[in-house]
Amino acid sequence: MSFRRVVYTVVTVCVVIVLAGVAWVWRPAIAPISASAKPAFDRKTIDRGAELALIGNCSDCHTKEGGASYAGGRGIPTPFGTIYASNLTPDAETGIGTWSEEAFRRAMHEGLDREGGQLYPAFPYDHFTKATDEDIHALYAYLMSQAPVRNTIPANQLNFPFNYRPLVAGWKLLFLSRANLEPDASKSAEWNRGRYLVEGLGHCGACHTPRNALGGEQKGSAYAGGVAEGWNAPPLNASLVAGHHWTVDQLAEYLSSGWHQLHGAAAGPMADVTKNLGQASKEDVRAMATYIASLSGPSGETPEHVHALVDAGNEANARPEIVAIYNGACAKCHNDRSTIGPSKALPLSLSTAIHQSDATNTVQVILNGIQSYRDGGGPYMPAFDGMFTDDQIAALAQYVRGRYSGQPPWTDVRAMIAKARQQGAQP
Fold first, then answer.
1. 260 beta partners
2. Which one, of 144, 168, 39, lies nearest residue 87 by Cα?
3. CA 223, CA 243: separation in Å to the nearest integer?
4. Which residues in 334-362 are b (16+ Cβ under 10 Å) and which e?
5. Phi, psi (5° rounding) for residue 368?
6. CB 115 within 8 A of CB 29
7. With contact defined as beta carbons under 8 Å apart, do 192 and 294 qualify?
8. How far is CA 343 from the centre of its chain?
9. How far separated are the first and last CA of the chain, in Å rounded?
10. What are the backbone dihedrals phi and psi of residue 296, each rounded to the nearest 5 degrees, phi first?
């Protein structure tokens, strides 16, 4: 074969591959709707959409601090850079005011915007694709009933090549499954309802499942624990610390209020989840609790058992300065008695954070406290980021780890403190 023929063949193959790729990635735009064409919705449908939005925690991501609800602009940190949440109000220029229901449904099921552009999976359509058309209709009705807010969203700040949107089509090929959830006839209607909400609009696995290097959920490790906005999302499956297993009643109370007397308070991004679920249908929240509790199964150990085992553990090697800090700043609320004070602090032996394999959540809560419920009279913990040095915080974290978990010391606590300070406090 001549050199010219070889070059011709290679170029032809490359062109065919490029054209095939373009054809595979390209999706048509869906025609915009005008203000006069916007459909009217009945009150019942809008109210149902509002409840589904609470279960999906939509306002948390799509509302920036101090901004209008659903007007977007909040920066979502990812390992690939920062993605800014879109404006979901029906503003015609900066929101979804020109989106038809068909375009909205396509975004939820396929991760495509009205114009056919690829959406980054920080918008968890790999879960939302499980939502029924009926529920998406209700969500669309609710969002289109909101007041339009003009808010231009900043450009995403992603590293190359992740700033090239067509690559998302390849991600979908690997990680997006649009298969429907078939009901499990061996389970109750409540369990199946909970599964539908948890796996779909609730997108719990988005935080509680570990992700691979490409940002896809590791399906073989579903609910084995993940990361969310600088916090560890603890496992919900059988790898959960035995004494931290949930009953359905405990979990339903926690999801509705953000606190349970044997499990403590929701903190970090989970605090906003529980605040939203507290306004959702109690039947739906209990169904979610039923499904989630089934992931870990029953445990022979109770939280009280764990508390009795590790209470008053090893503290002999603690520095007197750190013991004094603990007694002055922590012990008054985190006493070892069964009484719960106004801050709703628990004995630390019941803390999920100090039993985890790294110090992330313990460091976060010492630095930033638990502020989310302060206005509502819920659990509260002050932030100590400006009061203690990094050395004192690291030693304090190791002290409570050793005393109340019976586990070996953590490594790299100082690095976690530096990282948490750089990320800043969660609202």
1. 264
2. 144
3. 17
4. beeeeeeeebbbbbbbbbbbbbbeebbbb
5. -110, -10
6. yes
7. no
8. 25
9. 67
10. -100, -20
Taking CA atoms, 348 is separated from 47, 246, 341, 384, 406, in Å, by 40, 17, 14, 17, 12
Q: What angle do CA 193, 212, 417 make, to 5 degrees?
A: 100
Tokens of 15: 């062109």
145-201 per-position pLDDT tens digit: 999 999 999 999 999 999 999 999 999 999 999 998 999 999 999 999 999 999 999
The answer to whether the beta carbons of residues 148 and 96 sit under 8 Å apart is no
How many CB atoms are closer than 10 A to CB 5? 9
Structure-block tokens of residue 371: 């502020």
Q: Nearest to residue 351, comparing CAs of 377, 333, 327, 368? A: 333
Give the tokens for residue 413.
Answer: 């606590």
Asked if 246 and 305 touch (Cβ cutoff 8 Å), the reply is no
Number of C-beta neighbours around residue 381 at 10 A: 21
Residue 115 near residue 63 (C-beta atoms within 8 A): no
> How many residues are there in the chain?
427
284: helix, strand or coil: helix
Contact 196, 118 (CB under 8 A): no
Full 3-state SS string of 58-74:
HHHHCECCCCCCCCECC
> Residue 72 pLDDT more than 90?
yes
Q: What CA–CA distance (Å, rounded) separates 199 from 400?
A: 35
Higher pLDDT, 150 or 267: 150
Element (H, E) at 233: strand 231-233
Rounded Cα distance, 365 and 383, in Å: 7
Structural Rg of the chain based on CA atoms: 24
What phi, psi does 192 have (nearest 5°)? -65, -40
Burial class of residue 121 in the structure, from the number of CB atoms within 10 Å of its CB (0-12 exposed, 13-18 middle, 19+ buried): buried
Contact by Cβ (8 Å): 237, 222: yes
